[in-house]
Predict the 3D structure of the following.
Amino acid sequence: MDPQSRGADATAEARREALTAVYAEASVCPRCPLSETRTTVVFGAGDADADLMFIGEAPGANEDRVGLPFVGQAGRLLDRLLDEIGLQRSQVFIANVLKCRPPQNRDPQPHEIEACSDYLVRQVELIRPRVICSLGNFSTKLLRADPTGITRLHGKPEIRAIGARAFRLYPIYHPAAALYTPSMLEILRVDFERLPGLLALDPPPPPAPARTQRAAVEEPEPERVTEPNADAVTAQTPVGSNGAESASQLGLF
Ligand code: URA
């Protein structure tokens, strides 16, 4: 990635352009066998300069067909929950751990997550969200680099970092888990209600150069700055330049 678009003073426009280039690369990605079964790469969509980013698991059948994240039932619930806190999809950025649909919607496999995580890292570095909401187990475990499950972690914000970007990680249940379980929906609603307060906090300080560092604690929960996936933050050889030609194809606003 062009170091200038990653730099602290990179303009939103430069970062948006760099994100479009990452999309072009991802849209022809051959890195794992899902490239042979997918219909479309679902890169992510929303505001390329969003303060709030949601990270789900992987595209399902609808997303694979349309090329946009969360366009099925779980997506409609996500839209409703956003609306209840006064936000619209166009104001956030929504992405997934995997950019391609696993056949039969099976769980993402470790080698797929590893192959794909560099795209997510670059998305976070370029979008620079203040708050990342991990939806369910897969994105929570990846961003925390820890196997602790969502049942223990949901609703508990903590400061994390990817590369030079610190953010508040806020794990919540995946909306699909709440579709048919009213009690789960209530928990998700309560967790969602905390989002405006988190977005109103000052941005977390950038991580110290050391790989693992304690950070100032603002929330009652322990907030640690760690660097999951540091190995994934490496320059990648572009795999092609066709794919996305314009930001509008990205669903960016
Ligand atoms: N579930 C996800 O995790 N992501 C999507 O894009 C759709 C459903």
Notes: The first strand starts at residue 45 and ends at 46.
